[in-house]
Write a structure and sequence with these properties.
alpha+beta
């Protein structure tokens, strides 16, 4: 091999190493920003430390919503239709929060295995329909 071939080989090697390092850094940054949630079944299967902060996702169990007589406290149960996790939250719930609908709560477990939420997000329906079209569909379904 002559000098030109050596230079090309070094150049290609450095570019390949640079691309590999760049790709690794991008993947590492993306991994840090992924917001996934844990279901009640996954909580039952795993043992999280009490101070572990995570997102709990599932459906609000029908008939489980209980509001405190004084203050903004609310208790409800999140289920994935296999296991259930009781949740306690102090604050204003989102407008889309309903029993039987999807919810994501951010917080931690306490010593009684109850989820203490610091933030509650209501999952909305992916099927958006303007009011006038939804009204027409309801009328057509009735008659």
């Amino acid at each position: 091999m002559n000098k030109i071939h050596h230079r090309r080989l070094y150049f290609i090697t450095f570019i390949a190493i640079g691309v590999a390092i760049g790709t690794a850094l991008i993947l590492y940054a993306l991994k840090q920003n992924i917001n996934v949630f844990i279901t009640p079944t996954q909580i039952e299967a795993s043992h999280f430390p009490r101070d572990y902060h995570f997102r709990l996702g599932g459906m609000v169990k029908k008939g489980s919503l209980v509001r405190d007589a004084r203050g903004l406290g609310v208790r409800f149960t999140v289920t994935d239709l296999k296991h259930e996790t009781p949740v306690y939250y102090v604050g204003v719930l989102p407008d889309l929060f309903r029993e039987g609908k999807g919810v994501i709560a951010e917080g931690h477990l306490d010593v009684q295995n109850r989820f203490i939420a610091t933030q509650v997000l209501a999952k909305h329906d992916e099927n958006y329909m303007p009011k006038n079209i939804a009204k027409e569909l309801k009328q057509n379904a009735r008659g």
